[in-house]
Amino acid sequence: MKPEIVFKGTAFPESLRWHKGDLWFSDILSGLVYRGDVTTGQLHKEAEISPLVSGLGWLNSGELLVVDCEKRSVMRQDPKTGLSLHADLSSHWGYNANDMLVDADNTVWVGTYGYNPESDAPAPAELARIVNGKVDFPIGGLVFANGIARINAQKIVVAETFADRISIIQTSGEVKLLKQIDLPKNSTPDGLVVDNQGFAWIALAYSEAILRVNLETGEMERAIELPGTGVYDCTFGGPNLDILYVATSDTDETHVMRDLPGKILSFDLSLTHPGVHGLGNK
Q1: 89-122, pLDDT tens digit by residue?
Q2: Pair 99, 55: CB distance under 8 Å
Q3: What is the CB neighbour count within 10 angstroms for residue 20?
Q4: What helix, strand, coil percent values describe the chain, rounded to 5?
C-alpha cells in the first residue's frame, strides 16, 4: 500500500490525535505540539514544552492536556492564560513521563519510562490515573508504558515497548490486568489505536511496520510494511475515520533535530481493509 506524505520536516513526531477535523501531534524532541491541516499540509504550533513533550488529550471543557516528560507532569493549556499545572507525578516517578489517554469523563491515564533505557535494564513501573485532580497509581508491572488506547468503556490497552507486549487493563471498578499479548521478539510496540473490529493497530518502533492484532485471539498480521524507517505512532482520522495516519522518523535520534526527517504518512484503509475504521478512542 503506497502512502501519501501528509506532513514532513519535523524531528520526531508521535502522539497522533485526530481532533475536530485536524491531526494533532507532538514533535517530541523539539518540544512542540502541532495542529496539522491535512487538506493544506500546513502545521500550526499550539504549545511548547521543552525539552521533551509527549501525550496529548482534551478535557470536556476543550482545554488541551500535554505531558511534560522531564518534569513528569501533565500541563493544561487555556487559550487565554496559557499553560498551567494539571497534575504533578514527579513525587512518585523517578523517570520521564510518556504517552497519555484522556477519557470522555476527563479521567487521565499516563505511562512512564520506569528506568533509563540508555543505561539500565528494563524495569516495571506503575500507570498513573488522574481523576478530578487527584493522582493515584492503580496498577504496576508495566515496562516502558507507551501508547494507550481505549478498547471500550471497561478496558484500555497499553503498549510496553521494551517488553515486546501489549497489556489489556480493566479500568471500570477495580483496576486490574486482564491479559497480556506477547508480540514477536524485538517488535518494540510504541503508539497504538483500536479499530471497530476489536483489533489494535500498533506502530513497531524499530521493526518497520504497523502490526494489526486481534485483542481477543492474539492473531496478528504485519498490515503495513515501512522498510528503512522508525515507526512511532498511528491513529485513525478523516471524515469516516478510515484513514490511518502513521508517524515515522529515523531510528537513530542523533541528528533528527538537524535533519528533520520526521514524516506523517496516510493510508486509505477503505482500499485494503474495507469496513475498518476508528472509534475516536485515543
Answers
A1: 999 999 999 999 999 999 999 999 999 999 999 9
A2: yes
A3: 8
A4: 5, 55, 40
Amino acid 244 reads: L
Tell which residue, 268, 205, 264, 237, has the closest CA to residue 8. Answer: 264
SS3 at position 253: helix
Alpha carbon 11 to chain centroid distance? 16
Domains annotated on the chain, with CATH = 4-272 (2.120.10.30)
* Residue 183 one-letter amino acid: L
The SS3 assignment for 6 reads strand
Distances (CA, A) of 149 to 17, 47, 166: 11, 23, 11
Single out the residue of 105, 67, 277 nearest to residue 193, CA to CA. Answer: 277
CA distance 268 to 2: 9
